Q: What sequence folds into this?
């Protein structure tokens, strides 16, 4: 008998429940990936995600080749068309996959399940992308959580799944069929103009890259709380894209950190807690699917944003005149990733100081992040915009100058991403417009020429945000 393992966002052989089930079934296995971007609608993957996907698929294909298996690649308008075609080419007994929990994926998978089951094919799906199925966690009244801490505490009362990796022999799994497969290059996931040189330096988008970062994260886990907010330090794991594409499972991440770190409480309240923010975001998007582009708190539908493409573009290009914001936006552009602390400062600057809709920021992050994840991105932006679950209130405006002084005191982060400010003394760099002309000249900087003047004053931006908020509150 032959079965299909349909890889989606679980591009690994380790701790992969769908893969494990297929191996245990004793069937010959056809590993399959379907590229159907038109099916992703509004949330079609951006260029940075596609870059990552290309490499992750190449790596998975190499791993499978070690067992004599070929990853079959198919490009199609819809996944169902590709699957139906495949099941007509060869007799297939069963199909296995790990669930994705976005509304669009659920709709697609439900239809596929119905269609293939009607054709007599056994369809089995698993949870391999989260620690818990979003339906598993409810509060005492059976409703979804909207506040993080009780959600997290409730998760901790459950048995956290342990990773399971099974060994298998080539002869057991290798099918007799030689199926037509598209070339990976035909998916056109890599850039046509080579803008990815820094991405290549910054990332090793493979399973072995994930393992290296996991090892480092374990070694650093006792210092996580002290270092996690310092963007110049490698204090966080940088595992987010690997988790998104499933090159490492959350169960493996959790288990490895917990069993190998030296101080368990520190890990549990530090890096592992973040993994539950990931769970919480998925939980919220699953239960409130409209939040992918609408606020969770309904009243925010009518927030008086001041949409302005010029301001938005300056923010996107790292030309706001606020070094910490610009450094973050440039790190994002060059590497496809931004440190979490800077994500908070830069996103707050857009929605508060510049009064731009959070959806515009979320969209830019979506196309530029290698870890772009609908649940995490949506909840991150709504948290900042004050309109999400457990959100920081709108009137709490991050001060980009104080944040910069506190979290980048040596300016190592700013200077890395804004070389034109490299000669500016660290204590002055956070607000270059306050520098004396002589100080600027000594640092070789002409404001407005080498580096922009601030596009809005901090007090003015803060006041504008608070005025918009109080006007909005009184209109409710
Ligand atoms: P670590 O600190 O090492 O944390 C370990 C893992 O926990 C991460 O890999 C990630 O999977 C998860 N995690 C950490 N922080 C959060 C968080 N606040 N919310 C949810 N999960 C978290 N994260 C994404 O993965 N994709 C996104 O598209 C995304 N968009 C964001 C947008 C905004 C405006 C903000 C404020 C945050 C966003 N985040 C997003 C969350 C967070 O910034 C990243 O997960 C984190 O920076 C990844 O770095 P790391 O792997 O080193 O994290």
A:
């Amino acid at each position: 008998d032959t079965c299909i393992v349909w890889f989606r966002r679980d591009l690994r052989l380790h701790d992969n429940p769908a893969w494990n089930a297929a191996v245990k079934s004793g069937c010959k296995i056809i590993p399959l990936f379907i590229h159907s971007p038109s099916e992703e609608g509004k949330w079609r993957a951006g260029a940075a995600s596609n870059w990552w996907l290309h490499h992750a698929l190449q790596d998975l294909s190499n791993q499978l080749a070690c067992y004599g298996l070929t990853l079959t690649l198919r490009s199609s308008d819809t996944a169902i068309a590709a699957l139906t075609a495949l099941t007509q080419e060869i007799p297939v007994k069963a199909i296995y996959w790990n669930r994705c929990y976005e509304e669009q994926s659920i709709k697609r998978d439900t239809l596929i399940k119905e269609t293939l089951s009607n054709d007599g094919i056994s369809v089995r799906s698993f949870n391999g992308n989260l620690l818990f199925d979003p339906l598993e966690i409810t509060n005492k009244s059976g409703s979804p959580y909207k506040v993080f801490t009780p959600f997290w505490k409730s998760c901790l009362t459950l048995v956290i799944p342990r990773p399971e990796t099974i060994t298998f022999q080539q002869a057991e799994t290798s099918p007799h069929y030689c199926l037509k497969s598209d070339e990976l290059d035909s998916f056109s996931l890599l850039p046509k103009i080579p803008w990815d040189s820094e991405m290549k330096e910054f990332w090793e988008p493979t399973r072995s890259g994930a393992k290296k970062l996991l090892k480092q994260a374990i070694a650093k886990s006792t210092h996580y709380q002290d270092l996690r907010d310092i963007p110049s330090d490698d204090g966080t794991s940088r595992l987010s894209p690997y988790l998104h594409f499933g090159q490492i499972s959350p169960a493996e991440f959790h288990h490895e950190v917990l069993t190998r770190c030296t101080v368990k409480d520190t890990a549990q309240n530090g890096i592992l807690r973040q993994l539950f923010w990931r769970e919480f975001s998925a939980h919220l998007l699953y239960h409130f699917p409209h939040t992918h582009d609408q606020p969770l708190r309904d009243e925010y539908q009518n927030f008086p944003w001041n949409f302005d493409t010029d301001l938005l573009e300056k923010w996107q290009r790292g030309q706001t005149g606020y070094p910490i914001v610009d450094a973050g936006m440039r790190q994002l552009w060059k590497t496809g990733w931004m440190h979490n602390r800077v994500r908070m400062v830069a996103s707050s600057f857009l929605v508060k100081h510049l009064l731009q809709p959070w959806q515009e920021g979320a969209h830019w992050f979506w196309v530029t992040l290698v870890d772009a994840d609908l649940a995490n991105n949506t909840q991150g932006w709504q948290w900042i915009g004050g309109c999400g679950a457990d959100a920081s209130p709108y009137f709490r405006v991050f001060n980009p100058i104080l944040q910069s002084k506190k979290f980048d005191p040596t300016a190592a982060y700013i200077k890395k991403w804004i070389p034109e400010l490299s000669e500016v003394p660290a204590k002055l760099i956070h607000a270059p417009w306050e520098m004396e002309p002589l100080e600027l000249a000594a640092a070789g900087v002409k404001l407005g020429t080498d580096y922009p003047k601030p596009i809005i004053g901090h007090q003015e931006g803060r006041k504008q945000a608070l005025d918009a908020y109080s006007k909005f509150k009184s209109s409710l």
